[in-house]
Design brief:
- The structure holds 2 protein chains of 2 kinds.
- By secondary structure, chain A is mainly alpha-helical.
- Chain A has one domain (about 60-270): MetI-like fold (Orthogonal Bundle).
- Chain A is about 75% helix and about 0% strand.
- Chain A has 11 helices and no strands.
- Chain A has helices at about 25-50, 60-75, 80-110, 110-125, 135-140, 145-170, 170-180, 185-215, 215-220, 230-235, 240-270.
- In chain A, helix 2 packs across helix 11 (about 240-270), helix 6 crosses helix 8 (about 185-215) and helix 7 runs antiparallel to helix 8 (about 185-215).
- By secondary structure, chain B is an alpha/beta fold.
- Chain B has one domain (about 20-275): Rossmann fold.
- Chain B has helices at about 65-70, 110-120, 125-140, 155-170, 185-200, 215-220, 250-255, 260-275, and strands at about 20-30, 35-50, 55, 80-85, 85-90, 95-100, 175, 205-210, 220-225, 230-235.
- In chain B, the strands form 2 sheets. A 6-stranded mixed sheet of chain B has the order 6-7-8-3-9-10, with helices on both faces. In chain B, strands 2-1-4-5 form a 4-stranded antiparallel sheet, with helices on one face.
- Classes of the chains: A mainly alpha, B alpha/beta.
- The interface of A and B includes residues 174, 179, 198 and 270 of A.
């Protein structure tokens, strides 16, 4: 196209069009749409909450929930509960990852290990973690160990399976290239398989940490005095629905923050990814 | 950045061995369920002379890639043996470098780190690593791109990284499996010219697989034509029109008297293979 053309026609592709498949949005538009979606949700909730359709105590609007959250933080030392839950999630997830990483990597890297362990671990994924609660109560008592065990069982089998799949996805040519360059098996594992799968591992960990958060309340319902879930159970006794909802909101916010932290970690650990086409 | 001083690899060395690489009665059978094994390669024997470029040419399904992978030690022969300088090839090793058709740069390493990989896993000292990497990066004209990630490079440049990486361990044999198959036509002949320049300077013995007749005639000092179903040596051709010299430009190929006759002959060989199936 001639640069000095005084009145160039606008190319068709530049016209903003909604509902194109796999459209690339400018980040400002994406942000606007994301905030807009949230606002619409909050406004609708607020409207339903104050409309009188439902008793306000059972369906409080977001303003009531925000007030309850403020009250909890000021008067009931809710920050300590949040911290207790956060530590529980992080500790259990760290343990689950420490179990799952070596297993998943070895199962994906070596067909023999995979064949030996995968049927069993695949089957375990189908067992509902909550069904283990009575077992853990009998085995581990009502203390901290029982809660951690539940949070670990909730994610560890999925983690192993997914990390194995991530490892299997390493391109054979990369491994063969390393072999022709004289790399030993140990070197291929550490210098090819692990770095090649790292972005996928971090994605898997991020997704499964989100699942971990969903088990939090279940873990803290049984015989617990601290944590977000325990607070919610106390609130239920007095029909403080606003406080229960405040707990849900806090879990959501923490989950999103963890997600962001993992995305940041992925960017920092794998700086080359931004060049990927 | 000045390229380090490198001792010219002696072209005055003792006479090249005519049986540098020996392929002796090599067969490859694939087991099939409920059927006798399928013979993919049948009793292939030929020798590759030291410092020559030997091209394996043939239609798809002639087993040329499998044969090359056997030379690399990535595949095993069902019968027969392969010897490099009288040493039987039993597995991959740094003395046999390989360049694949697909891009095999390690995306998490910079271009220089990619080229250094083979030296690093073999425990070479830092000085040797850096000097060698820069030397070969300059050889493939990527000296200015040492510190970028492979994903930032074009396809042709990535294959140059793969070439430099394969050469950096100073292999005795360079194996190339349709190395320019994924490149566009223009990049392809530029790469062919560059390859000729580099391997001639380095006095490298090369076995290259292709199904492109012009590529075979341009690069090959000798061309082993394989028939298919099963793969057998159909004819070994020496491009006499080059009179023992290597060409430097693609134009020189079409200018060579005798090129067209040979090209026609090879096309006929290809056609015969096509018609039998």
């Amino acid at each position: 196209m001639n640069v000095s053309d005084p009145a160039p026609n606008r190319p068709v592709a530049d016209r903003p069009r909604w509902f194109d498949f796999k459209q690339e949005l400018p980040s400002s538009t994406a942000l606007m749409l994301g905030v807009g979606g949230g606002l619409v949700f909050l406004l609708a909730w607020q409207w339903v909450g104050v409309s009188g359709q439902f008793p306000r105590q059972l369906f409080p609007p977001p303003t009531d929930v925000a007030a309850a959250l403020w009250r909890l933080l000021q008067e009931s030392n809710f920050a300590a509960d949040i911290w207790a839950s956060f530590v529980r999630i992080m500790l259990s997830f760290a343990i689950a990852a420490a179990i799952a990483l070596p297993l998943g990597v070895l199962m994906g890297a070596f067909a023999s290990v995979g064949a030996a362990l995968n049927p069993l671990i695949s089957a375990f994924r189908y067992l509902p973690a909550t069904a283990f609660i009575p077992l853990f109560l009998m085995w581990l008592g009502a203390g901290e160990a029982q809660k951690l065990a539940l949070l670990i069982v909730g994610v560890v089998f999925f983690l192993i399976s997914l990390l194995m799949d991530n490892t299997l996805a390493v391109r054979t040519e990369l491994i063969e290239t390393a072999r022709t360059l004289g790399a030993s098996r140990r070197q291929i594992l550490w210098k090819i398989v692990l770095p090649a799968s790292m972005p996928a591992y971090l994605d898997t960990l991020r997704q499964m940490l989100a699942v971990g958060w969903t088990y939090l309340v279940v873990a803290e319902i049984v015989a617990t005095t601290d944590g977000i879930g325990a607070m919610m159970m106390r609130a239920k006794r007095f029909v403080h629905v606003d406080e229960i909802m405040a707990g849900i909101v806090v879990i959501g916010v923490l989950g999103v923050a963890c997600d962001g932290a993992f995305r940041l970690l992925r960017r920092l650990a794998c700086p080359y990814l931004r060049y990927q086409r | 950045m000045t390229p380090p001083e490198i001792v010219e690899l002696a072209p005055s060395a003792p006479l090249p061995r005519a049986d540098f690489l020996q392929i002796k009665n090599v067969c490859k059978d694939y087991r099939r369920r409920g059927a006798p094994p399928l013979r993919a390669i049948d009793n292939v024997s030929f020798d590759v002379t030291e410092r020559e470029i030997c091209v394996l040419l043939g239609p798809s399904g002639c087993g040329k890639s499998t044969l090359l992978r056997m030379m690399a030690g990535l595949d095993r022969a069902s019968e027969g043996e392969l010897l490099l300088a009288d040493q039987r090839i039993t597995g991959p090793g740094r003395e046999r470098g390989m360049v694949f058709q697909s891009y095999t740069s390690f995306p998490w390493l910079t271009v220089r780190q990619n080229v250094e990989f083979g030296l690093r896993v073999n425990g070479e000292s830092l000085a040797i690593k850096e000097g060698t990497a820069d030397y070969f990066l300059n050889r493939v004209k990527l000296g200015a791109f040492a510190d970028v990630y492979p994903e930032q490079l074009s396809g042709g440049m990535r294959q140059r990284v793969a070439l430099a990486r394969a050469l950096a361990t100073y292999p005795r044999l360079l194996l190339m499996d349709e190395p320019f198959g994924a490149l566009d036509a223009e990049t392809r002949w530029q790469m062919q010219e560059l390859l000729l320049e580099v391997v001639t300077k380095e006095a490298m013995t090369v076995v290259l697989v292709t199904h492109d007749i012009d590529e075979a005639l341009f690069l090959g000092d000798r061309i082993v034509f394989l028939s298919r179903h099963p793969g057998r040596v159909k004819e070994i051709l020496t491009p006499e029109f080059k009179a023992g010299q290597r060409l430097t430009t693609k134009e020189a190929l079409s200018d060579s008297p005798g090129y067209h006759e040979m090209s026609k002959h090879v096309i006929r060989l290809m056609r015969e293979e096509g018609e039998t199936h």
